[in-house]
Every structure is written in C-alpha cells, then in structure tokens.
Amino acid sequence: MKVPAKLFKKLDDLGIKYNLVEHRPVFTAYDAAQTMKRKLEQITKSLLVKAGKDHFLVHVPASKNIDLKKLARILKVAKVEIPSEKAIVKVLKIKPGTLSSFGFIHHIASIVDKSLLKSKKAVFSTGSLINSLELSVKDFLKTSEMQVGVFAVTKKFKKVKPQKKVKKVKNKKKK
Predict the structure, then answer these.
(1) Longest dimension (CA), the chain
(2) CA–CA gap between residue 47 and residue 27 (Å, rounded)
(3) Secondary structure, 3-state, the chain
(4) What is the dihedral of CA 69, 75, 51, 104, to 10 degrees?
(5) Which positions make up the signal peptide (predicted)?
(6) Could you tell me if residue 15 is left (phi over 0), alpha (psi between -120 and 50 degrees) or otherwise beta?
(7) pLDDT in single tens digits along all 175 residues of the chain
(8) 153 neighbors 61 (Cβ within 8 angstroms)
(9) Domains along the chain?
C-alpha cells in the first residue's frame, strides 16, 4: 500500500520536517526496529484499542507494553481491550497490517504515553508495510489533537535458563 497523499499534505501544511524511510515489508514494531537497525525506543508502536463504545489510537515506544487497566482509568471507562485484526479492518476499513500512526488518517482520537516524549525523534507507521516516517515526537503531537498519559510498562522478558546437558545413550544392538 502506498503512503496516503493526505499524510504528506498535512505534514507539509504544518511545516513539519520528516524523513521517509523505505524498507522491506514489516508487520510489527519489532520487525521495523530490526529492519532499520534502530533501538526499540526509537520505533513507535501504534495500536487500536476499544474503550467502552469508542476506539482510540494508542502510541507507545516499541520497548514498552500497554497497561490496559491504567489506560482504562485515563480514558474513564471500565475496560479497555485490543480488538482482533478482523475487527480493526472492519472498524477502520483498512487492509490488515496497514494501521497508520496518524489518527487524522483514520478519523480517530489518539493517546500518547508520556515515555514516548523522552525521544527527540521516532519512527512512525505510515500505513504502508514498506515505508515509515521519521520525525520529531513534538512535531508528531502537532498532527492531531492528542491526549498524553502514563499507561506504558516496560516489557518483561523471561530469562531462559541454560539447559542441562543431556547424556547420550548409545543404542545397544540386539543380537
């Protein structure tokens, strides 16, 4: 999918400087970081969430996860959930994997985790699997009306214990 022309028009109209980054097809923020040889903190993970009857576009550094309970408190709803890919396609009328970080493209409100503001620049999804945009986080905030809150938590990685050596048993041939 091509980058929507209205994305470039909006950025140009706002006088925002950006760098279009071409890359192999990526489907996750982790893929994007690996492909572009960037730290996870430099990649923005954008997810659609359902909060009550409303949907929001949520942005966190790719090194973080979303605490849905904290997000529910910020949005003043009982429950926040991440809809299925099928539901996202139906709600936003997009092809799978083409969710853009820019809420105005989808006519949807956005909320940004405060930890994203620690980065001067970040990489954002354009809605294309092969193009992303790098721009300042401050400029990203100018693209739509966005709420800022604290709802991201550091990803927890399980430490893998080294496996015990397994004794090799010789097969005894039957006579």
Answers:
(1) 86
(2) 12
(3) CCCCHHHHHHHHHCCCCEEEEECCCCCCHHHHHHHHCCCHHHEEEEEEEEECCEEEEEEEECCEEECHHHHHHHHCCCCEECCCHHHHHHHHCCCCCCCCCCHHHHCCEEEEEHHHHHCCEEEEECCCCCEEEEEEHHHHHHCCCEEEECCEEECCCCCCCCCCCCCCCCCCCCC
(4) -130
(5) none
(6) left
(7) 688 899 999 999 999 999 999 999 998 999 999 999 999 999 999 999 999 999 999 999 999 999 999 999 999 999 999 999 999 999 999 988 889 999 999 999 999 999 999 999 999 999 999 999 999 999 999 999 999 999 999 876 565 556 555 555 566 555 5
(8) no
(9) 5-153 (3.90.960.10)
